């Protein structure tokens, strides 16, 4: 009897198959060993190239498709899908489209707005922020997002710098309006989100919205001729003191809106936004990202660490946005049972410290942290698509072909890039900190700041590596390691970051110098253990025969500065140290910090519980370092 193999002989593979299999396995092993991020890089680059190719195709076809255009199409395609969820109320794509139409109709009827006119928006997080934004965009207006934390002189500066025809103010910010109204330019028409007003010559919006038509305004009003035309002004602190209005084009909005998609979010995701909408992270990446995906957004009036995970569970949130401080606040909450019981899979943001990153993952579960880097007005962005802890992104030669950038040597004493004997800047080696600069070209333009040519020019570096080249100066120091991961190192100039906000030292100095007993103020940031960014500290020189009035100092800073910009520490000196170029010396002061054991000068601390500056003792210093004193 013949065997099974005789009846059904197995086919013999060709002689080359075993060799090919070994070769494939060898290549796979070599790739894993020498190029471990090859496939992750390729997938990410394909997404970037695909998105860029799509926009280029629209351009070649003579079509300009904006994020607003995409939203209007989605309102037709999926009218009943929730777009916004706010305090339990659902606003569908159709709801938001129709209410924004009403707002557009109101301004079309009551104001002589032309395409390209600017309207300033001073509102907190609420659906009407988005309704007003979209309604004005449908009229072809440039909308300026005002930071509602900014007060008095700085706020007046913001309004005047963007030269708006109209200022729209939220109902919860009428107190802020009352402060600036007497000094506001007379040619600015003021509207408030209310049905009646006690202010003279101030218009009400809510009553007019109720009776306005839901019909869309003529399409030609909002049709963009080019993606490089301005659509928003978003304010950034920068390094020169008062906030500057960064010009945001349709192109930048489209790029920002693609961020969630690039990180792997889909139309089925529910995005939780607790960051302020005046921030580009919330408005462009968050709201714009929802539109790009056709997804749903849960909007929070204000971030609450205690309610955060309850909200995530209640609304089935799958994607959250963060800044480094936000993650730390969540980690500082008392441990509760079931903290991993949620559906969040992606966390997108920037500024999270390595230790907080690890603690966040250990405590709240397998959430992919999608760290990125990008300045509001900048022309360069990095995205950590691999999840490498601590990194803001990754680069390679292909990425640099599309987004050319370099890290160059920087002189901290002279506060400028180092140039060699030939006048050219020099690149740093891998592992060394260097100033991040990004080449400005047709594909990666820099649009500058509204109404401020000097500040726009100041952000550009000319003749960097060769004659005629032009680069955007980010003002940020970065490190690129030997695996081509990028890490944020520090900020240069007169800006530091605290509570997730940029603090301009010159603005704080100017406010303090208004006091009649202050001769000079030198403001800088100092590191505090277990806190993101740097806390504000002011070195003070008193006028001759004057004494420090702590009560008046406290009243001054809380009245004229946002809470995050108020200096936490004061140091009274007899002489102000200067650099060789007659600038205030900060580096030694930063190094010395706020330790009363090593500093002989009088030190004071802003105790929010007492609403006063108090003497910084060794005991109080220990409480701050141990985290017992809340900052």
TrEMBL record:
Family the entry assigns: Belongs to the ATP-dependent AMP-binding enzyme family.
Localization terms from the record: Cell membrane
Catalytic activities: a long-chain fatty acid + ATP + CoA = a long-chain fatty acyl-CoA + AMP + diphosphate; tetracosanoate + ATP + CoA = tetracosanoyl-CoA + AMP + diphosphate; a very long-chain fatty acid + ATP + CoA = a very long-chain fatty acyl-CoA + AMP + diphosphate
Domain called AMP-binding enzyme C-terminal: residue spans: 507-583
Keyword Cell membrane: yes
Designated name of the protein: long-chain-fatty-acid--CoA ligase
AMP-dependent synthetase/ligase domain residues: 75-394
Top class in the EC scheme: ligase
Entries under Pfam families matching the protein: AMP-binding (PF00501), AMP-binding_C (PF13193)
GO biological process, one term: long-chain fatty acid import into cell
